[in-house]
Structure formats: C-alpha cells, structure tokens
Amino acid sequence: MKSILRAYKHAPEAHLSSYCIPIFVDGKSCGRLRPLTIDSLHREEEMRLLTEWRGASAEWFTSQFPVTVEGTRQWVDEQILQADDRILFLVEDEDMTPIGQVGLLHYDEDKKECEFDNLLRGRKGRFGNIILYALLALGEWGIRQLGLQTGYLNVLGDNHRAMHIYRKLGFREVRRVPLRKVTEGDVTRWVTAPELSGGEAERELVTMSVATDAYYEIIKQFQ
Ligand SMILES: CC(C)(COP(=O)(O)OP(=O)(O)OC[C@H]1O[C@@H](n2cnc3c(N)ncnc32)[C@H](O)[C@@H]1OP(=O)(O)O)[C@@H](O)C(=O)NCCC(=O)NCCS
Questions:
Q1: pLDDT digits (tens, 9 = 90+) for 149-173
Q2: What is the DSSP secondary-structure string of 133-186?
Q3: Which of 2, 122, 207, 217 is most exposed, with minimal Cβ within 10 Å?
Q4: Which phi and psi angles does 39 have, rounded to 5°?
Q5: Can you tell me which atom of ligand 1 is nearest the CA of 155?
Q6: What are the Cα distances from residue 3, in Å, to 10, 72, 84, 102, 152?
Q7: Quick one: 2-222 is in which CATH superfamily?
Q8: What is the pLDDT of residue 195?
C-alpha cells in the first residue's frame, strides 16, 4: 500500500487531476486535495505559499524556526517526497486556488493506522467550512485506498479551533502529555516532559484517535 503513496507523489503532470481527491459538500464538488509531487519542488508559487503559511501558523506546531522557501523545498523533498510513509496534499477550492494543506504521516501498513498531519488553512476559501470536508475526504480516501482502520493526530492542547474540528470528525482524546519549551538560538521546540505534572506544564500535546466505524458514522452525518 505504500506503493500508493509513492504513485501519488510521482503522479505525472499531465495526469495530475486523476490523482486528486475530490472534496464534496452536500454532494457537490467544492474543491480537491492535490498531492505534492516531485514537480511541486519547481513550482515557486507553491513553495512560497507553503513557506508563508507555515510561518504564519508557527505557534500551532511543536517547532518554530525561521521559515524559508529553500528550507521548505528541502523539507518537501526529503521529509515528504522521499519518505515512504508520508504524503502531503494542497487543499484547493472549487476554482483550484490552494487555500491550505493536510497530509498523512507514519502510515503503518501492518497496523493499518496513520497520523493526520500538518493541517493548515493558509487563506479563506470560497466555501467557509472546506477544511472539515477536506479532512472527511482524506479520511475516506485513507480507508478506501490504504485500508486504514485507525486514524490519529497530535495537537497542542490550547489549539481549541483545531480540536473542535477533530471532535466533529469523531476523534477522541486518548493521551495528554506535558511539554517543556526548549529554545536554541532562533529555534524553539516544545518537547515532551514526563517529569512535569499537567498543572505545571506551560503547554500539552494531545493525541486524538478515531476508528473507521466511528468515522463512517460521521461521514454519513455530513452527506
Ligand atoms: C485549524 C484550522 C485548520 C481550522 O480551520 P478553519 O477553517 O480556520 O476552521 P474554522 O475557523 O471554521 O474553525 C473551526 C471550528 O472551530 C470553532 N472555533 C473557533 N475558535 C474556537 C475556540 N477558540 N474554541 C473552540 N472552537 C473554536 C469554529 O466555530 C468552527 O466550528 P463550527 O464550524 O462548528 O462553527 C486553522 O485554524 C489553521 O490553519 N490553524 C493554524 C494551524 C493549525 O492549528 N493546524 C492544526 C495543527 S494540529
């Protein structure tokens, strides 16, 4: 099944649309998830957007660092395109304008589980709630194409906006770990600190999880 991720990331430019996952709202297509491919590395606007969005949303990720276009290109190349258990999609609205991103990480073929990764809305789309539907589309694709039985994600405990969406999609909290802030030069990382009690920690990392059956029930509600 990892071959599926590889095929999407190597989708030829001429056939890219057949590798896009449609985003439906009330039965109507309102956008699509377009995989980042090896051609993305040469699309300057795409690299620029990913860089700008990551910089603007840095506080909601566990590491904050000076974000550059070259750094983003290297990250896409080495951490996403070359990783066999990971994929990243651009969320595009109905006129194919990229408005955000979402991916899958740590795909485990044997356990049939995977982490939802790098969710971010960079700008407002034409359809307000598109992120929710983008996640539904990605989850359904993961179940169908990758045979996923469990999806999970990690989110900072003070990210109420993101957690609200995840709860709507059936994700439930399974673990909460205290974090400690480590700053080295212009890089800040929030690292797990089991020695701290929940009350002492400045921030926490929450793991949320959903099983396929529960997810299908949620999908039905939104159809
Ligand atoms: C998380 C993110 C993708 C959400 O997408 P979005 O399009 O902004 O979503 P919305 O603004 O519609 O908010 C989503 C929901 O959260 C609710 N919400 C907003 N602020 C909230 C808060 N402080 N507490 C609880 N719920 C809140 C909204 O009302 C909405 O719910 P509704 O549709 O039931 O009304 C976006 O905010 C983002 O890119 N954040 C920065 C990156 C990030 O945090 N990524 C997640 C990493 S785990």
A1: 999 999 999 999 999 999 999 999 9
A2: HHHHHHHHHHHHHH--SEEEEEEETT-HHHHHHHHHTT-EEEEEEEEEEEEETT
A3: 217
A4: -70, -25
A5: 48
A6: 10, 24, 8, 20, 21
A7: Gcn5-related N-acetyltransferase (GNAT) (3.40.630.30)
A8: 82
| 161 CA distance to ligand 1 middle (Å) | 3
Distance 166 CA to ligand 1 centre (A): 9
CB-count exposure of residue 70 (10 Å: 0-12, 13-18, 19+): exposed
| Residue 51 backbone phi and psi in degrees, to 5 | -65, -45
Which residues are CB-neighbours of 116 under 8 A, at least 6 positions away? 102, 103, 104, 105, 135, 138, 139, 151, 152, 153
The answer to whether the CB of 47 falls within 8 A of the CB of 70 is no
Find out whether the beta carbon of 11 lies less than 6 Å from any atom of ligand 1: no
The whole-number pLDDT of residue 198 equals 62
CA of residue 158 to ligand 1 center, whole Å? 12
Q: Show the tokens assigned to 43.
A: 């699309």
